[in-house]
Amino acid sequence: MAAGLKTVILLSFVLAVGFLLIILSCALWHNWLPLLVAITFVIAPLPNALFSHCGADDFSGSYESTGAVDLGRFLTSLIVATGFAFPIILAHSGVINTSACVMSIMGGGLVYGTILAYSQAFKQDESEFD
Q1: Do the beta carbons of residue 40 and residue 86 sit within 8 Å?
Q2: DSSP assignment of 27-48, as one string?
Q3: pLDDT digits (tens, 9 = 90+) for 60-116
Q4: Do 19 and 107 touch, CB atoms closer than 8 A?
């Protein structure tokens, strides 16, 4: 199934709701530290995207992964875990409100989920023979 205009509209709506939740978690309680969660989830897919093409050749199977690909996946998972843990730590220490923590985590999850869904929906096949 090819991704079409409805997919783009749905993903942009979900992304807007995610950013709205993050900005509201900052604006409602006059504390702009939860905005760092948006930055964290936006840069989270970058290591995976950068290292995904490293080390592959024409003769290796698709099930083999190199150290660079594993490093990219590790860095991505580290950044995602930081994005979820940072608001929890801030709420636990009393820097932000608990409601701001929940809104920030929900918004960050929507932003990261939208980025993953977009990359899966519009992934191009690398086959030369199709």
Answers
A1: yes
A2: HTTT--TTHHHHHHHHHTTHHH
A3: 556 667 888 899 999 999 999 999 999 999 999 999 999 999 999 999 999 999 999
A4: yes
* Alpha carbons 45 and 42: distance in angstroms, whole number: 7
Of 111, 105, 106, 95, the closest CA to residue 33 belongs to: 95
Maximum CA extent, the chain: 58
Contacts of 65 (CB under 8 A, 6+ apart): none
Q: Which of 65, 66, 67, 73 is nearest to 47 (CA)?
A: 73
Which amino acid, 11? L
Residue 95 and residue 42 in contact, taking contact as beta carbons nearer than 8 Å: no
